[in-house]
Amino acid sequence: MDQERSQRVLLWLVALGFFMQTLDATIVNTALPAMAASLGESPLRMQSVVVAYSLTMAIVIPATGWMADRFGTRRVYIGAIVLFVLGSVLCALSGSLTMLVSARVVQGVGGALLLPVGRLVVLRTFPRERFLQAMSFVAIPGLVGPLIGPTLGGWLVEAASWHWIFLINLPVGLVGVLATLRFMPQPPAAERVRFDVGGYLMLAFGMAALSLALDGLSSLGLRQASVLVLMIFGLASLAAYWLHAARKPRPLFSPRLFGIGSLRIGLLGNLFSRLGSSCMPFLIPLLLQVTMGYSPAQAGMMMLPVALASMSVKRVATPLIVRHGYRRVLVVNTGLIGLTMASFAFSSPQQPLLFSVLQLAAFGAVNSLQFTAMNTLTLKDLEPAMASSGNSLLSMVQMLAMGMGVAAAGAVLAAFTEFFGAGQTLQAFRATFGSMALITVASAGIFWQLDAADSRAVPSRPETDPPEAG
Fold first, then answer.
1. Which of 75, 136, 325, 439 has the most crowded CB, counting CB atoms within 10 A?
2. Highest taxon of the source (predicted)?
3. Does the pTM exceed 0.70?
4. Where are the chain's structural domains?
């Protein structure tokens, strides 16, 4: 096989892994009520299924680069697919919520390795002048996955059962393993760097403790004292990592990264903005099925306006940012996201279908613009030597915020359900949407801190979005 064809097949292989990962990040949301009924759980307490996957990805991402260098990209990529498929099978076989959450952890480990290692393979295979074009091709399935995920999940629940949203990964994974063995090159061994085990454990424990503390307010049934202890330990662990990284010559993420104003504000904005908005793919299908009488397939179809508007707005994102700058775009758009989220507080079973479609499309459009602006702001001023570390840090923050956002929404929903009473579920949802909208709007204050230099877009320099979660 000639080199050109081999490289083309390699791109399809990496794109396949990206598609598997992004599809499973969204396909579960529509099926949560059906899972809850099958497992004997409340649909309002199923957020741990989403949180486990996102949090595991956030924890594993910092180790992906070292693992690829230590064990080889091809070997790690095959292992990622095998773990992802194994986790999918375990999810389908789960007979309890605890088993399902544990299986999602296994699946999350595989998912965390798929994209970073695939990106690394492309980086090492393609010359610099073709890398942007190659990664743009790989990114397309990442947009298609969230587009069809909710609809496919709803259809599978009705046509077969919720187990098939995981079992469809088996044939895809088998093709991926065989194609990896056949077409993925085995690059020369990279320089082995000593892994910062201590720093990694502090960082991982800190992220896990904070996320579990939020989730413990609702689905885990932890008492307030336990939640408080978990939060304190989590914050102490993250503070210890920061002090540790400041004195280590080669930490996981150098504190020098935070000397870059655009990256510092971009990361903090990503974290707090997504804490609010990332709960929407979890809350909306629940709202539609639990309180408004939609079937799983109908709820999945209702998520199409979000995905279509998200893809459509990509065309205008760059011209808007170039014309108005990051500061103005992000401050105004953060407010618009809050308003569209708050509009769901007026949802009712009697509202016209057209209103719901326009409401969902509006949220998808402003949310997509937010992702594009936040991601490019975070990475635009990184030097080549820091690009890989900065991109991994951004991916980690995105997944962490997604998990914490869903956990926070679940805790808020549980609190309002208890406050209003079991018969007032719609009121609990309305209050939850309003609360999460306020959290999102609060993040506008972070973007307000951008100075003129950091806010300026650089149109002459190619800017690409890293994969978006949620």
1. 439
2. Bacteria
3. yes
4. 1-192, 197-251, 258-470
